[in-house]
Amino acid sequence: MVAFFTDTMICGFSLYQILAYFLIYSCIGWCLEVVYAAVSTGQLVNRGFLNGPVCPIYGFGMIIVLFLLTPLQHSLLLLYIGGVILPSTLELAGGWALYKLYHTRWWDYSDYPFNIGGYICLEFSLLWGVGTLIVMKMVHPVIAGLIEMIPPLVGLILMILLYAIYAADTIVTAFAASDLARDLDALEKVADSMHAVSDAMTELLGTNAMAVDQKMDESRLQFKLAAAEARDSASSLSARDAANVMRAKADEAMEAAKKASQDAKLNAEEAANAVKLAAKGTAERTAELLRLEQLAEELQVRSEEFRARTQKATPHFGKRRMLRAFPKMKHGEHNRSLDSLREQLKRK
């Protein structure tokens, strides 16, 4: 078996070397990410997508660089240009694939000049070229020499163990990322619904001066009590069930808001006219407004419960670790940052 890994050649490298390089450069990439985050933010966080001390994109990137740029080592210019293009292409493809898979931007360069879709930018692409020169000329010869010093049988046994852990970590992280995307979808839907409800309430109140009587105040009190009951029941639900309930309530709120304004896509003047046409009397407008207030209260309860669950999660594993690892993460069709999403939920 050892002979198979050492004798099987791909682009001038044995399968044994490729597997070893992938692990080593994944770990080196993770170290660089942690150091960069510590310098730029002053915080020591696990910056990898996986829970372990590895960044797979660096491993893949270095394997591609070794395959395609090793024949160009004699030319610093070609090596640099290749170092700009290849890692940037991988970063672009990786960012796009993760967005399509989880509807989430794990990193975003939208604020940087000369960026492509926020996935890559000129500044970091140029730095990739510098990094490629350093690695190919200084780092890789040392690593290649160290690997040659390890007996192939010992190295293979060690790699089998490490890859088993790597695979398990990948599976666990994939489920955690899916759960996080599901929860962020629910939060985004709640934020959109709360905004729609708020707009619909404003439109209803703007049709004319509505008499707010004692009956309305009593109804509001009942809604407050119902919201408190919802908060108690939400705490007993599982994370998945809580997210499903929150999404369902958001859908209900969105439909109610659309019904109140007749058409959510109308401009402000048309929406106001549509609401005026729909309003048939004070009693009906009062009931609609109270319904919207109830939905807004319940949505706020659900969002608070979700944030409380997130805060209780361990900061070093799973979804909460991902939130700390990617502080510039953006999610959803509106490409909202998590900070703006949280602020929007707080304001409503």
From TrEMBL:
Keywords: Membrane, Transmembrane, Transmembrane helix
Ranges of compositional bias, category Basic and acidic residues: 330-348
Stated name of the protein: ABC transporter permease
Chain spans, region Disordered: 306-348
Membrane-traversing stretches: 18-38, 50-69, 76-96, 116-135, 142-166
InterPro entries for this protein: CmpB_TMEM229
The keyword Transmembrane helix belongs to this UniProt entry's keyword annotation: yes
UniProt superkingdom: Bacteria
Organism for this UniProt entry: Faecalibacterium hattorii
Compositional bias segments (type: Basic residues): 317-329
Pfam families linked: ABC_trans_CmpB (PF06541)
UniProt KW Transmembrane helix keyword: yes
